[in-house]
Amino acid sequence: MEPSLLEKYYLGQMAEMSRVFTWEDVEKCAELTGDYNPMYFDPDFVAQTKFKRPVVQALLTEGLVTALINGHLPGPGALLLEKEFIFRHPVHVGDKITARVQIIDVDIERQWITEKVICRNQHHQEVLRGQVVLLVQNGKR
């Protein structure tokens, strides 16, 4: 391993990105996973729950986090080793979700980075909180 590979990362380093989730996103996710839970698609069903209107699959919010990790921090070549997420508020179609990651540990020997993860909606409500452990590779052969 190149000694400088992880040296460009530091404690407290952050990145963020946002996305507005659409019905098309929800439909595509269901097609790919086979998960047609009425919580995503049936307004009458959801109206009887505390959520009152259909929610976006948790997988989509998680996908925003992995897009941020692989696109920005640490970037291409990162591999998710461990994740721990708590979903604190529902995400609905039309919500703008901003994901933020912050490096809380860099283990040069193992080539691991640990990041704190927080996602908030357009009302600044925390919708997801957690952390990830990532293997960072340089991609050289």
Automatic annotation (TrEMBL):
UniProt cross-references to CDD domains, sorted A to Z: R_hydratase
Q: Which GO terms describe its biological process?
A: fatty acid biosynthetic process
Q: Which InterPro entries match?
A: HotDog_dom_sf, MaoC-like_dom, UPF0336/Enoyl-CoA_hydratase
Query: Gene3D superfamilies of this UniProt entry?
Result: Hotdog Thioesterase
Q: Name one Pfam family in it.
A: MaoC_dehydratas
Q: Name one GO molecular function term.
A: (3R)-hydroxyacyl-[acyl-carrier-protein] dehydratase activity
Top-level taxon in the UniProt lineage: Bacteria
Where is each MaoC-like domain found? Answer: 18-112
For this entry, the protein name equals MaoC-like domain-containing protein
Species name: Bacillus thermozeamaize
